[in-house]
């Protein structure tokens, strides 16, 4: 038995060190890029570790008799099961190419804290402190969940990390209690409001049917009201624009952010910083040098008789004119993508081609996401979602709480989840319509635009008698008419001028001639010849 | 008598068949028949005759006085009824009957004689007396024909006063109903009225005293010719006055404007209720204002006015101062006018009265101003001494014809002195350069080019003129003349000085004189003008200008007072202008004397000048409201349209963009065409400079004005000549990328086939769970974890392929579309350059190297 447990413990080491051996926790103390999320998480983890360690020192509540082999075995399995499985296998997994260095820094920080927690856990196991151990395991789970959430919501401003507010074992008081309805008469005013409680009041809260949360917003989510704000009043969103690729408008993981980490983080970041710096310097030099071209361009266009192009953006975009902008946290829907913030780099980092794979993948996932939001029809909605008429709602509630409530609700749930799956699949397939059907013509329209402009002005030059060859012929006819001294010359030039002045005699450019085989008669009649 | 009458009838009816047929209410034959019946006392006798006879044969002792009705019965040979009415059957009744008929026959004979005589006189006067509405309208037609053939310049330069008439339409709402009613109410008297007012209302009003319009009084008088010579019908006069008042008097309503000696004829208007009668209307400028005149006339003057045989009721006056007592007794007692005694004959009308007051008759032979008619001393003396009053008569050799003041000059010989060519450009004299054939276009003067009465140093010729004229008024002008014109200066401005100390009424004449000089000098530069320094040139130029001045003086009646003809005036005045440089009498050398000096001749020129000045001053007194020099210059178009027309004549006729306006007569058209031809031939080349007809033809050694080469199409943005490049298509690499993506989505390094990425057994086996079942389950569910991502990629793969294909296609197309766009852009550029080609406004000039002619071509 002992041997087995030792073997298991030994086995515990290997996989856990396997993924954190490279980094260790040396990045755990870096200032996170995302102050509104990762920093909070890190603070909570720090407090949690201290609490866990302190709890053990204080004695805690659990006797050492918990240290049983079977418990350890189950514990190991549970930890192994959660830690490994979906750590890096999430739906929104990004590979090395897509993650920006800033996101990498934050993930490194979280990994560092995970490592720290693991080390503390090992110490706790060595010191036979089961309470600390359980706290730390719960901390690891918490950090795992946050890691998942970070990866899921790093680029998605609409992603809210709902579970962050949950109460965990490692959380030190104070907590928030959301009182239920079964309250005594003295505490009626407490019903429905979030109250801050200490460790000793937790059981009191639970007796009265309440729930305990660590963050105020989680308490609010549970249905209670809370007065005032505070830093916990709003839910947490991991999104920050500093994770996104840098853009000229000021958003993204640019030099100003990277600068903070270039000497403290991993090597790759320093190289990234240097490369970006060199690129921007080259770009600035280019922008400065190109200024001399402006005059030449204007002269060239003037010499060719073309209208001058719009040079309003000439020499804009120098790095000195760029200020860093940031958008982070939970953003209102209509402000989520301001101009200049980019989700993706359209081109590969190493080639100039567009990274179609990533772009289309994103499109696909976007459409699938829309599919997931598809609203089920009324007969599948749960009763609380029926909003249009009250009697329908009443009828549904009856069914849901009546005799066959459980199979009824179960059937509805199964149908809804089937519908959702099918919607996701359907819209995922539909997303191919964009590339197959509408992309081609749209690109062509774009391509033809300059040609269309030229064709239009070419056509215009024959539409009016004051332009193009018509004007020339008109002036020539007038000039010749002044020197005409015999009648056939006069009548011929007269006729020419009448034709030139009459627009219906030039129907070709308008396409008016097609379908009108007698267009020449209109010309004759209108010109009066 | 009857035969005579019938002859007259025949004459009239031969001449007027058309007119009689047109007038439905007046039938010539019916009228003749009526008159004849009256004469023969057939049918209805005249009431006057009846009353006369009744009054003559009335016996105071009769129980029943004889009445006109009784006479009627007698004349109608109803003797039985007559006697019954007289209540006496036999004896005196028959006697009276006979006597009535006898008396009536005598009266009728007398009246018939009157009618015959008058008809004869009218018949002879028809067609030659210049009344309006006459069927033989040769005078109007003649004037019209002359006018059509004339150019506007001619009449100012003719040595005789010409009659200028023009027609104008009547205003729209003229009302003749009052006049017609008045005439209709007068019945028999209408004839008298029409005869009375046949020379117009104004002539009647001015009859009594010279020049003053007398007020009308409805007098009655007893004279046999009272009604035709003295009586005035005030209603009719008022009606005529209202007709005159309705005529347009605003000079602006006449286009081209009325000249001071022009008469406007309005169309005659037949009077509806009075058959055979018309009303005629004219208008002319009198004392600076347009005044109208109106009168009545006959279509066919067949009605006669007979002497009265009955006195007017309530007339009372039997003109006792001229008639003796017996006469007056007869008038009083018998109430008849015995006749036979007439007052003194009327005074002979003055030259401007009566027939010579009518516009068309004015210029006729009978009414011509008789030079020397008063036998002034100079003329008589000249006639006696045999000097020629007319310079033009130098070609006449016989002395008997010299000095005859009544000689009619039918032709004019131009002396050598006046044959110098003036009004010319370098190639030669210009046609129609002098004169007023053009009408001023009111909009043509911009504010910068307005000529004020002061010196305008900024005045410049506009693009349609060869010169600009700056007229200014000064107290005295250099040379002490009435005006002075300087040749064109370097800026193209001709200065004209007008003396404002000379009588104001002479200003138009002086102005036109100076403007004629301007016309002569307009086309000449300063050097060329100064090269004209011979006697002939001075005399010719002055003579031309003075012809105009004297013509206007003649219109105003000045020459009548001074008793010289226009020719004389022009020649003698030319002397005064040229005497500074060339001595006295430079232009009219007397025969037999070489050169210039002759005391008598010199007197004549100076004397004429002083006489003219006096005459103008007299005119000034009569017209105190004549415009002053400043007023005249500032409002030239309105006050003196002829001067404005002369100024207009300074312009080019055929420059493109310049307007020419003239009255549509043959002469004016010829002037226009000829000036155009001249300008074209003299100013431009008719053949281009580079058109060799044979191999040896030379092109012109100088070049026409060439505009700079616009270099159309010199710079064209032609598309680059690039070859089509197909974009690279590397399907293997794409598939590899897809495989990599699939593996990376699972967090695995790439592997081929990618299905290997979906499952890594070491993940679980390196970290086994507590029991085998959990391990197995976990291993089983491992591929499912990556399924979503993989499925997503697989679903997305077709759109990836489509997108890559589209990208390749647009990459290829972009190149060729850019090329096509550049091509079209170049074509557009060429088109727009083509439309900007400027054609010159002026034909190729001759002598392009001289001066800055080429600047005309680059507007």
- The tally of helices of chain B reads 31
Coarse shape of chain B = elongated
Task: Give the termini separation of chain B.
Answer: 84 Å
Structural class of chain B: mainly alpha
Largest interface, with counts of residues having CB < 8 Å to the other chain, equals: A-B, 65 and 59 residues
Provide mean pLDDT of chain B, rounded.
75
Chain-wise SSE layout:
The complex is a heterodimer of chains A (529) and B (859).
Chain A: H1 2-20, H2 38-58, H3 69-85, H4 101-126, H5 130-153, E1 175-178, E2 194-197, H6 202-207, E3 211-213, H7 216-221, H8 255-258, H9 267-290, H10 293-304, H11 356-372, H12 390-401, H13 405-430, H14 432-463, H15 468-483, H16 487-501, H17 519-527
Antiparallel strand pairs in A: 1-2, 1-3
Helix pairs in contact in A: 1-3, 2-4, 2-5, 4-5, 11-13, 15-16
Chain B: H1 2-15, H2 17-22, H3 28-39, H4 47-57, H5 68-75, H6 79-86, H7 92-125, H8 138-149, H9 154-157, E1 164-167, H10 177-186, H11 189-196, H12 201-205, H13 226-229, H14 234-245, E2 262-265, E3 269-270, E4 277-286, E5 289-298, H15 325-334, H16 359-362, H17 377-385, E6 424-425, E7 428-429, E8 468-474, E9 483-485, E10 493-499, H18 507-521, H19 526-531, H20 535-555, H21 558-562, H22 566-582, H23 599-622, H24 629-634, H25 636-639, H26 641-648, H27 666-683, H28 731-745, H29 761-765, H30 772-835, H31 854-857
Parallel strand pairs in B: 1-2, 8-10
Antiparallel strand pairs in B: 2-4, 3-4, 4-5, 6-7, 9-10
Helix pairs in contact in B: 1-7, 4-5, 4-7, 5-6, 10-14, 18-20, 18-26, 20-22, 22-23, 28-30
């Amino acid at each position: 038995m002992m041997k087995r447990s030792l073997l298991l413990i030994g086995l515990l080491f290997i996989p856990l060190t396997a993924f954190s051996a490279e980094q260790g926790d040396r990045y755990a103390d870096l200032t996170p890029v995302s102050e509104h999320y990762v920093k909070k998480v890190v603070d909570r983890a720090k407090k949690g570790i201290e609490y866990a360690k302190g709890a053990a020192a204080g004695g805690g509540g659990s006797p050492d008799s918990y240290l049983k082999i079977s418990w350890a075995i189950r514990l190991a399995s549970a930890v192994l099961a959660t830690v490994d499985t979906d750590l890096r296998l999430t739906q929104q997994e990004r590979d090395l190419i897509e993650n920006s260095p800033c996101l990498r820094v934050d993930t490194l920080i979280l990994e560092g804290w995970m490592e720290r927690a693991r080390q503390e856990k090992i110490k706790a196991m060595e010191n036979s402190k089961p309470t600390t151990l359980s706290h730390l395991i719960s901390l690891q789970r918490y950090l795992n969940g946050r890691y998942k959430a970070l990866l899921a919501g790093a680029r998605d401003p609409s992603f809210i990390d709902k579970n962050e507010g949950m109460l965990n074992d490692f959380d030190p008081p104070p907590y928030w209690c959301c009182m239920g309805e079964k309250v005594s008469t003295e505490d009626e005013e407490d019903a429905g409001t979030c109250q801050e409680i200490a460790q000793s009041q937790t059981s009191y809260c639970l007796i009265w049917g309440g729930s305990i949360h660590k963050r105020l917003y989680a308490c609010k989510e549970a249905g209670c009201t809370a007065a005032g704000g505070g830093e916990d009043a709003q839910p947490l969103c991991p999104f920050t624009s500093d994770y996104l690729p840098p853009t000229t408008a000021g958003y993204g993981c640019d030099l100003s952010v990277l600068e903070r980490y270039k000497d403290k983080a991993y090597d790759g970041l320093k190289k990234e910083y240097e490369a970006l710096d060199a690129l921007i310097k080259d770009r600035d030099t280019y922008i400065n040098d190109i200024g001399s071209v402006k005059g030449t361009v204007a002269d060239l266009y003037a010499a060719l008789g073309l209208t001058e192009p719009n040079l309003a953006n000439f020499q804009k975009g120098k790095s000195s004119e760029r200020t860093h902008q940031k958008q982070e946290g939970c953003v209102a829907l209509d402000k989520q993508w301001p101009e200049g913030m980019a989700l993706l780099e359209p081109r590969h980092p190493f080639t100039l081609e567009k990274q179609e794979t990533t772009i289309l993948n994103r499109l696909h996932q976007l459409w699938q996401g829309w599919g997931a939001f598809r609203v089920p029809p009324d007969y599948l909605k749960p009763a609380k979602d029926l909003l249009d008429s009250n009697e329908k709602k009443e009828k549904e509630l009856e069914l849901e709480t009546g005799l066959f409530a459980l199979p009824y609700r179960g059937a509805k749930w199964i149908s809804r989840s089937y519908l959702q799956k099918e919607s996701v699949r359907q819209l995922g397939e539909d997303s191919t319509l964009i590339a197959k059907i509408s992309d081609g013509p749209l690109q062509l329209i774009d391509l033809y635009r300059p040609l269309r402009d030229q064709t239009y002005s070419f056509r215009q030059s024959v539409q009016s008698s004051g332009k193009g060859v018509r004007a020339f012929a008109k002036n020539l006819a007038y000039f010749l008419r002044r020197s005409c001294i015999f009648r056939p010359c006069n009548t011929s030039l007269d006729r020419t001028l009448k034709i030139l002045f009459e627009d219906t005699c030039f129907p070709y450019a308008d396409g008016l001639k097609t379908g009108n085989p007698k267009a020449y008669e209109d010309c004759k009649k209108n010109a009066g010849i | 008598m009857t035969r005579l009458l019938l002859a007259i009838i025949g004459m009239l009816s031969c001449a007027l068949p058309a007119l009689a047929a047109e007038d439905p209410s007046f039938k010539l034959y019916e009228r003749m028949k009526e008159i004849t019946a009256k004469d023969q006392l057939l049918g209805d006798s005249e009431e006057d005759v009846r009353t006369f006879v009744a009054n003559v044969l009335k016996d105071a002792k009769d129980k029943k006085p004889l009445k006109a009705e009784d006479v009627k019965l007698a004349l109608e040979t109803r003797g039985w009824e007559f006697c019954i009415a007289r209540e006496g059957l036999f004896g005196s009744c028959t006697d009276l009957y006979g006597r009535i008929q006898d008396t009536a026959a005598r009266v009728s004979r007398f009246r018939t004689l009157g009618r015959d005589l008058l008809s004869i006189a009218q018949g002879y006067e028809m067609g030659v007396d210049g009344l309006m509405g006459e069927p033989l309208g040769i005078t109007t037609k003649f004037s019209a024909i002359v006018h059509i053939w004339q150019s506007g310049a001619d009449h100012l330069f003719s040595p005789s006063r010409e009659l200028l008439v023009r027609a104008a339409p009547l205003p729209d709402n003229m009302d003749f109903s009052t006049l017609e009613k008045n005439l209709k109410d007068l019945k028999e008297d209408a004839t008298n009225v029409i005869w009375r007012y046949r020379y117009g209302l104004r002539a009647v009003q001015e009859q009594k005293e010279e020049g003053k319009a007398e007020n009308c009084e409805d007098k009655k008088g007893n004279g046999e010719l009272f009604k035709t010579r003295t009586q005035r019908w005030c209603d009719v006069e008022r009606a005529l006055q209202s007709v005159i008042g309705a005529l347009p008097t605003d000079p602006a309503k006449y286009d081209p404007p009325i000249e001071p000696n022009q008469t406007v004829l309005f169309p005659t208007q037949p009077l509806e209720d009075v058959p055979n009668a018309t009303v005629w209307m004219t208008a002319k400028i009198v004392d600076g204002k347009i005044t109208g005149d109106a009168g009545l006339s006959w279509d066919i003057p067949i009605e006669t006015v007979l002497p009265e045989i009955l006195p007017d009721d309530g007339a009372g006056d039997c003109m006792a101062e001229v008639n003796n007592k017996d006469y007056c007794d007869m008038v009083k007692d018998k109430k008849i006018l015995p006749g036979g005694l007439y007052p003194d004959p009327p005074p002979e009308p003055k030259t401007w009265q009566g027939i010579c007051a009518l516009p068309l008759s004015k210029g006729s032979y009978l009414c011509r101003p008789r030079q020397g008619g008063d036998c002034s001393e100079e003329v008589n003396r000249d006639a006696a001494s045999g000097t020629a009053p007319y310079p033009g008569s130098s070609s006449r050799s016989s002395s008997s014809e010299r000095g005859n003041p009544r000689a009619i000059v039918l032709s004019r010989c131009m002396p050598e002195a006046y044959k110098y060519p003036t009004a010319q450009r370098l190639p030669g004299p210009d046609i129609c350069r002098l004169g007023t054939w053009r009408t001023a276009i009111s909009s043509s003067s911009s504010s910068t080019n307005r000529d004020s009465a002061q010196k305008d140093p900024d005045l410049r010729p506009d693009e349609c003129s060869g010169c600009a004229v700056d007229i200014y008024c000064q107290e005295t002008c250099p040379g002490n003349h009435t005006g002075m014109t300087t040749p064109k200066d370097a800026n193209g401005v001709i200065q004209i000085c007008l003396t404002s100390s000379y009588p104001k009424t002479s200003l138009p004449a002086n102005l036109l004189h100076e403007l004629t000089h301007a016309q002569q000098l307009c086309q000449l530069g300063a050097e060329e003008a100064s090269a004209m320094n011979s006697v002939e040139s001075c005399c010719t130029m002055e003579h031309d200008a003075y012809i105009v001045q004297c013509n206007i003086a003649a219109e105003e009646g000045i020459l009548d007072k001074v008793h010289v003809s226009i020719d004389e005036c022009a020649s003698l005045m030319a002397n005064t202008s040229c005497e500074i440089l060339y001595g006295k009498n430079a232009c009219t050398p007397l025969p037999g004397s070489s050169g210039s000096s002759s005391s008598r001749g010199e007197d004549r020129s100076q004397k004429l000048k002083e006489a003219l000045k006096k005459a103008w001053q007299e005119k000034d007194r009569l017209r105190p409201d004549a415009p002053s020099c400043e007023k005249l210059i500032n409002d030239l178009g309105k006050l003196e349209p002829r001067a404005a027309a002369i100024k207009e004549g300074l312009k080019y006729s055929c420059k493109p963009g310049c307007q020419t306006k003239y009255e549509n007569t043959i002469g004016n058209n010829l002037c226009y065409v000829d000036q155009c031809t001249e300008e074209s031939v003299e100013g431009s080349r008719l053949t281009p400079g580079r058109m060799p007809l044979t191999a040896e033809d030379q092109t012109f050694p100088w070049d026409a004005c060439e505009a700079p080469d616009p270099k159309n199409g010199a710079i064209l943005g032609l598309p680059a000549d690039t070859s089509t490049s197909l974009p690279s298509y590397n399907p293997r690499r794409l598939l590899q990328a897809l495989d990599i993506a699939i593996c990376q989505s699972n967090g695995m390094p790439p592997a081929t086939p990618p299905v290997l990425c979906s499952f890594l057994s070491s993940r679980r086996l390196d970290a086994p769970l507590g029991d085998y079942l959990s391990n197995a389950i976990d291993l089983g569910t491992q591929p499912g974890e990556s399924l979503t991502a993989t499925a997503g990629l697989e679903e997305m793969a077709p759109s990836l392929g489509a997108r890559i294909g589209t990208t390749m296609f647009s990459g290829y197309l972009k190149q060729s579309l850019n090329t096509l766009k550049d091509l079209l852009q170049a074509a557009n550029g060429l088109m727009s350059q083509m439309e900007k080609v400027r054609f010159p406004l002026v034909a190729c000039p001759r002598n392009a190297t001289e001066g800055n002619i080429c600047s005309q071509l680059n507007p």
